[in-house]
Amino acid sequence: MKVKLPFAVAVSVLLTGSVRQTFGPPAHLPAHWIAVASPDPQADGAICAYWSDTTWDVSLTPDSTALQIARHPGEPDIQTIDVSGGRLLGYNAGEFGGEVVFVGHDDRVTSIAKQNLSFFVPSRFGVLGLGGTDHLGLNEGWLLLFKPRSNAAWAAETLMSIKGEPRAYTALGDDTLLVVTMGTLVLLRPPSSKTVLYRTPLMSFIDPHTVVRDRAGVIYLGTRYAVTRLTPGENGYADDWIVPASCPRRVRTAETGKCACADVQRR
C-alpha cells in the first residue's frame, strides 16, 4: 500500500521556508538505463532486489540536468565531524546500540549520547544528527542537535522523533532536509517541523542509501538493484524503477536466494 501526499500540498511543503525549486525538465537518465514499473512488494522483482548484492548511489550533475548512478561503496564504520574544541564521532551498531562521543584536542573522550548515529548534518542551528534503529519490528528514528557547552565539551538534544530509521538524506536549503527512512520519505525542518511526503513498504524492502531531487522536483533513491524514481503529479508521487537495460527484470530461480534476468517490455 502506498500513501501519497496530494501534489498541491507536497509542492507547498517543499517551497515553504525558502526551499527554492528551480523548475525545468526532469534529469536525463544515464546511458544503458531504462524505466520499468515498480513491482508489488511480494513479487519476484521486489524479492530479487532484496537478495541483490549490488546497491546503487545516485547524484546529479551540478546543473541538475542529468542523473548519475554509481555502485555504492559501503558505509563507513564511524561518522565524524570537526567542531569547536575537537571533533564528534558517531557510531551505529544497529540493535546493539550506538554512541556519540566528543574527542577534544587533548584526546580526552566524552560520551554525549547513547544513541545510534548515521549522519552528522551541518546547519545554521549547529551540528544536527540523524540516527535510528530498525530491528525486529522496531523502526524508529530521531533528529539530534549537538551544542557546545561553556566548559569546552559538547551536549546532545533530541529535536524530534521520526517514523523509521533514517537511511539517506539531502539538504534542500534553509536547513530543510529530505530524509529517506526505512519506509517513508519525510521532509524535516528543524527544530520541530516534519511532513511525510510518501510512504510505501517497498522502500524499506530494498534498502535505500542515497537520495537526490532534480530541478523538476523528481526524487531519486539509490537502492539495491534499482533506482526508485518518484515523479510528482496532480494526485501525488508516481513511482517507478530505473534499472540497467541489460537486466530490466529479475525472477527467482529454483535455488533459494538466487535470481536470473528476464525480458520485460520497455515503458
SSE arrangement:
Layout: E1 3-4, H1 7-15, E2 33-37, H2 44-51, E3 56-60, E4 67-71, E5 78-83, E6 86-91, E7 99-104, E8 109-113, E9 119-123, E10 126-135, E11 138-148, E12 154-162, E13 166-173, E14 176-181, E15 184-189, E16 193-199, H3 201-205, E17 210-213, E18 219-222, E19 227-233, E20 236-244, E21 249-252, E22 259-262
Antiparallel strand pairs: 1-16, 2-20, 3-4, 5-6, 6-7, 7-8, 9-10, 10-11, 11-12, 13-14, 14-15, 15-16, 17-18, 18-19, 19-20, 21-22
Description:
This protein has about 270 residues and is mainly beta. The chain has one domain. The protein has 3 helices and 22 strands. The strands form 6 sheets. Strands 1-16-15-14-13 form a 5-stranded antiparallel beta sheet. The chain has a 5-stranded antiparallel beta sheet with strand order 2-20-19-18-17. The chain has a 4-stranded antiparallel beta sheet with strand order 5-6-7-8, with no helix packed on it. A hairpin with a 5-residue loop joins strand 17 (about 210-215) and strand 18. The radius of gyration is 19 Å and the shape is globular. The chain starts with a strand and ends in a 5-residue tail after the last strand. Mean pLDDT is about 85; it is low at about 1-15 and about 15-20.
